[in-house]
Specification:
9 helices; 35% helix
């Protein structure tokens, strides 16, 4: 995602990192280096997670960044030029509402960049669960074309979507499950409602060890992840003209700032 910023002509004066602990501390540092003069903000929930993010991103006492252009852990007073959301969208139970919220946080002519998991993610694990008669291990992930439609519906324009598949291998079922726990949660409406017992947990480890071998690396386990990347711009709002029209002041200012068509 960060490498794709080289193709963006407009350099943002401000940007917002959405859920930085999931999006990556290293990614935040890359953006700070790319846009050293831009004001940076972090949106991190819940409050205890915000404290962890603040501790991870706070410069050392001796660093001049502690007093000059430091990252702000507060909502920006004005919409930002860039909203950066890495691996967040698929974790929302109401993604359309989240995209709409992002639209409000991006100023006119600003842009959104995001990534999320796609429908081929965990396909081996889904097949394994189905063979055992268990409910799905995770909720269904949205196709990239549907994300593009949702972006347009929220008011963004010119969405560009693409994807790649990444294969990860693991040394044991324990490391595999630990990785999945760190990646998120299961939002499937038919997920198992209670707590699993020790016998089921042992059966899960045995099924993973037997059912997910890596054909290229004997003794290791394999899982596929589909990563979707997208970006879209926020165009100037189109004002519907009626016999009597009420126009918000901020929308009028955005319209006046927008370049005029010949």
């Amino acid at each position: 995602m960060e490498q794709r910023l080289q193709w963006m002509v407009k350099k943002p004066d401000s940007w917002l990192h959405w859920q930085v602990l999931r999006g990556g501390i290293e990614a935040h540092s890359l953006l700070r280096r790319r846009y050293p003069k831009a004001a940076s903000f972090v949106q991190q929930d819940p409050p205890q997670a915000s404290a962890l993010a603040r501790a991870a991103l706070s410069p050392p006492l001796w660093s001049p960044l502690r007093w000059k252009n430091a990252t702000r852990f507060e909502a920006p007073a004005q919409p930002v030029d860039l909203l950066w959301a890495n691996m967040a969208l698929h974790m929302s139970s109401d993604p359309q509402a989240l995209i709409q919220r992002w639209h409000l946080l991006v100023q006119t002519d600003g842009f959104l960049m995001f990534s999320c998991l796609g429908p081929d993610t965990l396909r081996e694990l889904r097949d394994l669960y189905a063979s055992q008669g268990w409910p799905d291990p995770a909720h269904e992930f949205t196709d990239m074309h549907d994300w593009g439609d949702m972006l347009v519906q929220a008011g963004f324009a010119e969405p560009v979507m693409d994807m790649e598949r990444i294969t990860l291998s693991f040394s044991s079922s324990a490391t595999l499950l630990a990785e999945l726990r760190g990646l998120g949660r299961n939002l499937h409406p038919r997920r198992f409602a209670g707590l699993r017992g020790r016998a089921w947990h042992d059966a899960l480890h045995q099924a993973i060890a037997a059912g997910l071998p890596d054909p290229d690396q004997p003794g290791r386990l394999r899982l596929t992840f589909e990563i979707i990347y997208g970006h879209a711009f926020k165009p100037a709002p189109r004002m519907a003209v009626q016999e009597q029209t009420l126009i918000p002041l901020e929308q009028m200012r955005a319209s006046l700032r927008a370049p005029k068509l010949p």
